[in-house]
Amino acid sequence: MKPVIETENLCKIFKDSAQEVCAVNDVSLSIGKGEFTAIVGPSGSGKTTLLNMIGGLDSPSSGRIFVDGRDISTLSERRMTEFRLHHIGFVFQAYNLIPVLTAKENVSFVMELQGRGKDEIERRACELLEAVGLGDRMDSRPAKLSGGQQQRVAVARALAPAPQFILADEPTANLDSKSAANLLDIMERLNVQEGVTFVFSTHDPRIMAKAKRIVTLEDGRIVNNE
Q1: pTM value?
Q2: pLDDT tens digit sequence for 122-136
Q3: Which residues of 26-37 are buried (b: 16+ CB within 10 A; e: fewer)?
Q4: What DSSP assignment string belongs to 85-114?
Q5: Beta bridge partners of residue 39, listed in sequence order
Q6: Cβ distance 215 to 40 under 8 Å?
Q7: CA dist 164 to 12, 31, 51, 77, 126, Å?
Q8: Are 201 and 172 in contact (CB under 8 A)?
Q9: Tens digits of per-residue pLDDT, 133-162?
Q10: CA dist., res. 109 & res. 107, Å (int)
Q11: Which of 20, 32, 97, 128 could share a disulfide with 156, CB 3.0–4.6 Å?
Q12: Rounded CA gap, 108 and 110, in Å?
């Protein structure tokens, strides 16, 4: 199967006045369509930095990143922003919902940026919120939702643009155990039933237990890939 994500000899070096830190060191990785993969490792191992580079939120110091065969590591900032809008979904630890918008408006917003039609946006936003169990909370703003509900809105928002894959950075870190379990069940169902590709950065054993593949980083290098 042709990989949806591929990195070649990826490196990221952070510099300050005193030293250089190699956060990601010569990482070559291939992820196929429909995978449910967890990138794990101790704090400082480079997993979030790796995820940010795959998502085009950070630029590599060297190496290349391919999404569906296209080299995104050479894109300008403007073209990378446009590419993310159409090809990559994000779920962040801190939810990152727009507080003045309702759940449905948060999910709709990215599709509006894509220039989709009003009827399509309305239909897809409602379908996605139903899929994550929030059909009765579409008109609620984030402040009226629990942390688990807000993260489910974030998952629906990530799915809205029909991306090639979803990157989830510590998505359960701020959730209680019940909310985390519910969220993981939803993402696992979407992965199995809809073929949605998920790549997690995590240290949560609950995600690791559900992952079909675990990539372990230590000191910026892959030490296990199974």
Answers
A1: 0.93
A2: 999 999 999 999 999
A3: ebebebeebbbb
A4: HHHEEEE-TT----TTS-HHHHHHHHHHHH
A5: 201, 215
A6: yes
A7: 24, 12, 15, 20, 21
A8: no
A9: 999 999 999 999 999 999 999 999 999 999
A10: 6
A11: 128
A12: 6
